[in-house]
Specification:
364 residues, Rossmann fold, Glutathione S-transferase Yfyf (Class Pi), Chain A, domain 2, 2 domains, six-stranded antiparallel beta sheet, six-stranded mixed beta sheet, 15 strands, 41% helix
Length: 364
Amino acid sequence: MWLQSIQLKNYRNYLSAQANFSAGLNIFLGQNAQGKTNILEAIYFLALTRSHRTRSDKELIHFSQKDADISGVLQRQNSKVPLEIKLAEQGRITKVNHLKQARLSDYIGNMTVVLFAPEDLQLVKGAPSLRRKFLDIDLGQIKPIYLSDLSQYNHVLKQRNAYLKSAEKVDKTFLSILDEQLADFGSRVMEQRYDFIQQLELEADKRHHMISYTLEHMSISYDSSVSFTDKASIRSDFLQQLTKNQQRDIFKKNTSIGPHRDDVQFFINDMNASFASQGQQRSLILSLKMSEIALIKAVTGDNPILLLDDVMSELDNDRQSKLLESVVAEQVQTFMTTTSLDHLTKIPDTVSLFSVTQGHIEPQ
């Protein structure tokens, strides 16, 4: 798949903008604070109905306006798919083929994206919430049922925590009913994460081994707060441990275990990657991003769109070359932001260049 065009109205610093893209490499060139990242954010938002920079829709609307519109035309193998998201004070409207979508899971997955941004370099050393978000975004795009299970789990979790906080005397029978529901949805979330991490590890290790000139192997560990012996026992083990921890949860007034406390650890040659050099960590993240592309293609049968937000300046010349070589080899549509072309090496001949100045996009 590839994004043919995008139209922005009242989005960030774009009162009105339109651009047509190529199926290969598209580079947005301009100085800082001109709107380059806003374009990538808009493409990301069009795919996932969320920003990678803010949780507030209000921040996406031009300060002088009350609503915004992001739309685009996606070229699939045999058809064109118009996508649109309207943001207004009363909420948002998502459309596919000009038809309103009632559920998030009906919209997400039409257009898949992989984002590589400077903050991704914190994936190794940052908070566990960053790694959970990484799992949720990838799985949500390729398995709509995962989004549904995660949403249901979070709903029951919120209900359970609210009850623990508000109840003067906890009814353990009612708490056990909530535990059953939490185990139902939570076990499905964990099973899907477990499978995805195993698949990701295989793909990422192959790429990391190549990027490191066959000197390093990488591995990924799924660290769950729920101890389980194998995938088939996750639900029963989760429910048993919820029951065992009830008294502790009543005292602390929150839920101590579950996928909301999951974590992922990365290893290079069996050493925790948080202790690796910055160069090794960057190679690891690069391997992960290219593996995401391969996994999405394997599940959906179509390439995702790759978004590179000012990451080339974070990579040395060798890693830049490896990334661009991988992009060409995967034949994936790519959008890249940069302030200069001077540091880029081996740019493909088929590149499309856009100049971005004060909220205006001009093809070069």
